[in-house]
Design a protein that fits this description.
Elements: E1 2-7, H1 15-28, E2 32-36, H2 39-45, H3 85-97, E3 102-107, H4 109-119, E4 125-130, H5 146-167, E5 169-175, H6 182-190, E6 195-197, H7 205-217, E7 223-228, H8 236-246, E8 251-256, H9 268-286, E9 292-297, E10 300-305, H10 306-311, H11 318-327
Parallel strand pairs: 1-2, 1-3, 3-4, 4-9, 5-7, 5-8, 6-7
Antiparallel strand pairs: 9-10
Helix pairs in contact: 1-9, 2-3, 5-6, 6-11, 7-8
This protein binds adenosine-5'-diphosphate and 1,6-di-O-phosphono-beta-D-fructofuranose.
Length: 329
């Protein structure tokens, strides 16, 4: 087989580890790998790693020492053209012209929506690998990059707690996650935050302010509220204003962590997950699978249809929501 591989959408720590795994698993089994740069935009432009499909496929050596690197050496993009019928046809023609039999897109839900659309105009095999800090894909316990992003955010919160305690302040820390609260909830639990505001659970500002006042009366010197960017309160700044109006007993500061959560070297669990899923994607292609995502469930690799991964909202672990509330006393 000649396998194309690309990284698409928001980058995530571990994309390089997944790419390395795809290349090494495929070349070990005698397949060729074409690295496509800049996601679907690079596919449309026929922008290939090492200068072009004819000038060289990726080799085991071309992915040396990238496992530990953040970002993606293939680069990524958000590509509007690919969402149009014309863009999809151009991409399909590029795949045919370069003799690519199968594609492994590494990315999130948008990337998989694109893969499903591509599958309607191109007859090659497609197996996706889930990589996004949002952990918002159904069909895999964890996405590549999530654990590292949580660790990065927790490291920031540990530092914010030091200054919050010194000044007896409340910090509202906004984390990414798009319309999903997985990153916020895991960050709050691991960072010993008192409160997490997530899109999946609606709580009004008056109730949050009441809870904060209770915590103050219990002797809390500092408060950390983790706010998911997609929360219905409108983010950390908007919530801070509402809490001030509702009566907040602390001096407050807001921090938006932003893209710092996307960077950095992948944690060992992300490196291992990425390596397992990249290898499994190649083996699944060889077994004839297509239109699927390589996911992980309770430590075992599994295939789910790409369409399933984004059809429904991935629910938060309910027990973790309750656990956070029980710890906030
Ligand atoms: N419905 C769609 N049809 C075709 N392509 C899509 C569709 N949705 C997303 N894409 C492509 O996938 C890319 C990555 O999606 P995006 O949502 O930006 O990131 P992620 O894959 O991380 O969720 C988009 O920039 C676009 O090119
Ligand atoms: O990098 P951009 O374009 O500002 O996008 C920010 C978005 O990308 C993410 O970091 C990752 O989301 P995706 O993996 O779905 O691309 C979101 O958490 C955030 O909302």
């Amino acid at each position: 087989m000649r396998i194309g591989v690309l990284c698409s959408g928001g980058d995530a720590p571990g994309m390089n580890a997944c790419l390395r795994s795809v290349v090494r698993a495929a070349t070990s089994d005698g397949h060729e790998v074409i690295g496509i740069r800049r996601g679907y935009q690079g596919l449309i432009d026929e922008d290939f790693f090492a200068g072009g499909a004819d000038s060289g496929c990726m080799s085991a050596r071309s992915v040396s020492h990238i496992l530990e690197r953040g970002g993606t050496v293939l680069h990524s993009s958000r590509c509007q053209a690919f969402t149009t019928p014309q863009g999809l046809q151009t991409a399909a023609a590029a795949l045919r012209r370069n003799g690519i039999d199968a594609l492994i897109p590494i990315g999130g839900d948008g990337t998989f929506r694109g893969a499903v659309a591509l599958g309607k105009v191109w007859s090659g095999q497609i197996i996706g690998c889930p990589a996004t800090i949002d952990n918002d894909l159904v069909g895999t316990d964890l996405t590549i990059g999530f654990a590292t992003a949580v660790a990065t955010a927790v490291d920031c919160i540990d530092k914010l707690r030091d200054t919050a305690e010194s000044h007896e302040r409340m910090f509202l820390v906004e984390v990414m996650g798009r319309n999903s609260g997985h990153l916020a909830l895991a960050t709050a639990l691991a960072g010993s935050a008192e409160i997490a505001c997530v899109p999946e659970v609606n709580v009004d500002a008056d109730s949050i302010a009441k809870h904060v006042r209770e915590l103050r009366s219990l002797g809390k010197q500092s408060i950390i509220i983790v706010v998911a960017e997609g929360d219905e309160q409108g983010g950390a700044v908007a919530l801070n204003q509402k809490l001030a109006q509702a009566g907040c007993p602390y001096g407050t500061r807001t921090v938006i962590l932003g893209h710092v959560q996307r960077g950095g070297s992948p944690s060992p669990p992300d490196r291992i997950l990425a390596t397992r899923l990249g290898d499994f994607a190649v083996r699944s292609l060889a077994a004839g699978a297509t239109g699927m995502m390589a996911g992980d469930s309770a430590g075992r690799c599994r295939l789910v249809t790409l369409a399933e991964t984004f059809a429904t909202h991935k629910p938060l672990p309910e027990h973790e929501v309750e656990l956070l509330e029980r710890m906030s006393c």
